[in-house]
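Chapter summary example.
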Amino acid sequence: MTTAPGVIVVGGGYAGIAAAMTLADAGVAVTLLEERRMWGGRATSWADPKMAEPLDNGQHVWLGCYDRALALLGRLGTAHHVALDRGLDLAYRTHEGRAFRLRAPAALGRAGLALGLLGFGAVPLFERIALARALARGPAPDPAMTVSAWLDALRQGPAARRVFWEPLAEAALNLPADQAAATLLFAVITRAFRGSARAAAVGVPRAGLGALVAPVADALAARKGRAHLNAGVREVRVQDAGFALQLESGESIAAGGVVLAVPAAEARALVRDTFPDVAQRLAPAADTGVSPIVTLTLWYERQVLPAPVIGLIAPPTGAASGFHWAFDRGALLGARPGAWPVTLVASAASELMSLPTAAIVERACDALAAYGLTREAPIATRVVKEPRATPALTPQALAARPPVATGVPGLALAGDWTDTGLPATIEGAVVSGEAAARHLLDSGILPAGHPRNGSRT
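The structure predicted for these 457 residues follows.
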């Protein structure tokens, strides 16, 4: 690698992959660089060294409203790995082992959600009515509101909050309801519950997250682009009318345009010396706090969960386990005889992060027993702690999210931390990557006077 005309995208997560594919589809010569040995960024997977099965860096759920992310998988040829339900169909368990189901068949259209909520016995009837009304036509929150404050304004009852709103907020925003920005949850509600019935459908990948984006190098090569792992970037410099990227290996690569699809702090470090004004504007985003996710996989000798995905309803009083969802990964991925994996996920998991592995496993086993799912002892366990899973997008932090444009011709930003109007999810990352690519395309991609190295189609 010495010369790469066109655009260089730094960062091989979903934002960077989306930017690279969008540019390549427009006929631009693209090079995608990722410093690690795998694609996917904070949504990737690797083989467990003991069980030889894919482990995700946090279990991800896809929704039918993930239009851009699903379209990206279609272009990569991996959309078949995410099979969406026909409408909304989720199983729930209470701490006493009572089972409930929330069903909204797609065949009934938007009326199916209202009917499904009215039949959702985990919430008292009068609270179900208020919940259905809020989902259908609740007004947008004030930008300064937290989710809890917005739910107060919507007059949502304690059971509806505990069973529906708070687990949804923590799953989508990765923050407790009293901290998370309500405008982001409203964006989720609008996309998932106020569109087509399919928009609320849930899909869990039937392969490791890494497999969803693994074909990116071949996909870019088919579009005359390139992709490289183990290619860390040290600095972005000005060269002639374009840019030069100094790699960690000591090599330098020239480009007419650059997309920085890395976390805010890394983007700031890459431009600090060359573009101090951009670095200064990125400082608030770089200084935004983060929120962790803890994922625990337990292997059993047989299948133990009665449904592929189960929501774990926290008790109305007393301490909750911290885990919000249980996934039957054996059913999703295809289990080996005698080694059936179950995954439990805890969003906004600051408390669990501080616990040793043995204590997390013990708590999970106690929770599975309390919810009436299994009392069997697992044959193997694996805890994955992701301390920087997402930016902590409080109402105050929203103002720190920058646009994809930097003010420097040919230089754009991408990532779930940019101002997408969405939470820090895979869909938000893809939206940002496509927006960064469109910004370069609409602005001519290259600085004035620089020879064009790709042709738009």
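To summarize the output: The first strand starts at residue 7 and ends at 10.
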